[in-house]
Fructose-bisphosphate aldolase
Amino acid sequence: MPLVTSKELFSRAYDGNFAIGAFNVNNMEIIQGIVDAAKEEKAPLILQVSAGARKYANPTYLKKLVEAAVEDSGLPIVLHLDHGESYDICKQCIDDGFTSVMIDASHHPFEENIAITKKVVEYAHSKGVVVEAELGRLAGIEDDVNVSEKDAAYTNPEQAAEFVKKTGVDSLAIAIGTSHGAYKFKGEPQLDFERLQKIAKLMPGYPLVLHGASTVLPEFVELCNKFGGDIPGAQGVPEEMLRKAASLGVCKINIDTDLRLALTAAIRKSLSENPGNFDPRKYLGEGRTAIKEMVRHKIVNVLGCNNFL
Ligand SMILES: O=C(CO)COP(=O)(O)O
Ligand SMILES: O=C[C@H](O)COP(=O)(O)O
Ligand SMILES: [Zn+2]
Ligand SMILES: [Zn+2]
């Protein structure tokens, strides 16, 4: 099976109230860990590549690794550009064979975001590629911010509907209180589900995307800290909130930080417990296994996209 777009995956996810995991990939072990879990759980996958990942791994290598994953697993896999910052990088990835790109022009004024997104959509659609865009600012919002500050940063539901209509974009990343990285909330985790419901109601059947959706699993934070790390106070999105989002029109859930933490925790532990070892296959292998089990947990217990095939 060749790489697929997310069209069919999202439509099934929407109807079934589950979500597809979009995992950031940077090297072979990360890809293998994710794909091995998905293969065993019969789950589709979105493997996403950031500009930083392309720079780190070299675009040709990454693409070949993802193609190898498709060939080896036989799974429906989407190759997606994460946070494309310009028309040019989106075009480059489309020409390179990506089946999905994100144009993230969310930091531009509304009309400009529309114009840039529309241009990407026109090119992508002419090549059979789907597009994700973003509206709103993905930022950690403190507990004590007032309503007007929240309104300024979070996605405006009416604007979201207008944006989708004017751009023809295939999916939309929204801001309801998540943020990237391991420090998402200072106090109680809080997402604006009322806003999500309003957005979903204005666009029935339309696939929404949640960035910054790692849970920052405490077991990995603890392992990192136990074996020489120093990441105090890390906190992510509780799993029940992700399940709720998936039942309210969120079809794509982005996960990077949890992969980083699982890999780092396992490598720290392995190196610390085996001080005489200098064979990378041992600690990278243990990192890969940690990723596999973490991703399996997400697929089965959080995303609900197992037994998809
Ligand atoms: O949104 C993401 C990638 O686009 C990843 O979010 P996390 O940092 O929560 O894993
Ligand atoms: O959204 C950001 C992703 O976690 C990718 O991060 P990166 O740009 O460091 O590769
Ligand atoms: Zn953004
Ligand atoms: Zn993101």
Notes: The two ends are 13 Å apart (CA to CA).
